[in-house]
């Protein structure tokens, strides 16, 4: 009798679908693998806006460059300039060999690592751009190179790794 | 009508800045903080490869002195000890001489040279004749119809320093404006006064050997501006100067 008397939440019953909750959660879009590049604005006529501007900072000293990049990022936040991305380029390692000619030929090695950080900005008005440049330049630490340039596709591609196997297969196919 | 445009004479002036070459010295609190942080980091950090190697070799040496077992093994391996490397690096470091932060021009207080005050911005001031007075001003030149104000400012720079200046003008918009009325003796209906528009430029190269048309020029910092410029002019100029 106990078994016959249980009330299943069948379709005709008002309790149908009583435990469902997934419809309440936000929809998850499946992630796309490919990144889209082209999000560029062109300099308009009357109101001058720069499109995507890259501020690239390079140095041998890692802490210095990172702290400077953080400073620039926070500065842009405070000045309500939209920061698209703030990323690091892969570090380049240089080996410096000294050839001493006195007596025996000795090779003194030194290993130098070059670090680069990029802060990408959008919507910089051209009346404000020189002021920003001056602020950043005057707070530039010693040993850090600063470069401000417009974002191009080549810059974007330089971040991606080339896939030699894929290129070989494509070459074979065509 | 009174609301009609009163004809003002327009001038374009250029504020040429030489950027600082060194960082400014830290304040007392900053220095204490930096020292404290360094000490904390040193105490928290791990040994680097070089230090581990050095410690291992010192242990080795101690063992060799106490007991003569390891002599045959050790001599074959290490040709250059970590200690030797350190001594070599020390010697190299002693040979290196950094450039002086306070240059000769600082000691002589020679304000016409670009080599002084390497840690602050230097501005160009020239002596110009306005009306019948000789005044120290930022180089300015009158605007001619048909050219932009920025090119007026560039022309002002070129007249005082020659054409071969490598300076980067910041933006097309002026940074500040100073307007003054002529004294009532010269003032007429059509010639009420003058407006001076200031532009900023950064000096790219510090090699001015090819330039110098006028001898009365000075390179001054923001604090020293007060010695040369008039009050009202100084107020307007100070508004757009960062330091």
Automatic annotation (TrEMBL), chain A:
Keywords: Mitochondrion, Ribonucleoprotein, Ribosomal protein, Transit peptide
Residue span, Small ribosomal subunit protein uS10 domain: 54-149
Xref: InterPro entries: Ribosomal_mL48, Ribosomal_uS10_dom, Ribosomal_uS10_dom_sf
Gene3D superfamilies: Ribosomal protein S10 domain (3.30.70.600)
Pfam family, one: Ribosomal_S10
Keyword Transcription: no
Gene Ontology CC terms, in alphabetical order: mitochondrial inner membrane; mitochondrial ribosome; ribonucleoprotein complex
Membrane-spanning ranges: none
Location of this chain's protein in the cell: Mitochondrion
Similarity annotation: Belongs to the mitochondrion-specific ribosomal protein mL48 family.
PANTHER family attached to this UniProt entry: LARGE RIBOSOMAL SUBUNIT PROTEIN ML48, MITOCHONDRIAL RIBOSOMAL PROTEIN L48
Name the UniProt record assigns to this protein: Large ribosomal subunit protein mL48
Taxonomic source organism: Sylvia borin (Garden warbler)
Gene name of this polypeptide: Mrpl48
UniProtKB/TrEMBL annotation, chain B:
Pfam families documented for this protein: MRP-L46
Keyword terms: Mitochondrion, Ribonucleoprotein, Ribosomal protein, Transit peptide
Subcellular compartments: Mitochondrion
GO CC annotation: mitochondrial inner membrane; mitochondrial large ribosomal subunit
CDD domains: NUDIX_MRP_L46
Transmembrane segments: none
Keyword Metal-binding: no
Cited InterPro entries: NUDIX_hydrolase-like_dom_sf, Ribosomal_mL46, Ribosomal_mL46_N, Ribosomal_mL46_NUDIX
Domain Large ribosomal subunit protein mL46 N-terminal: 8-106
Gene3D superfamilies named among the record's database cross-references: Nucleoside Triphosphate Pyrophosphohydrolase (3.90.79.10)
GO molecular function: structural constituent of ribosome
Record has Translocase as a keyword: no
Family: Belongs to the mitochondrion-specific ribosomal protein mL46 family.
Protein name, as recorded: Large ribosomal subunit protein mL46
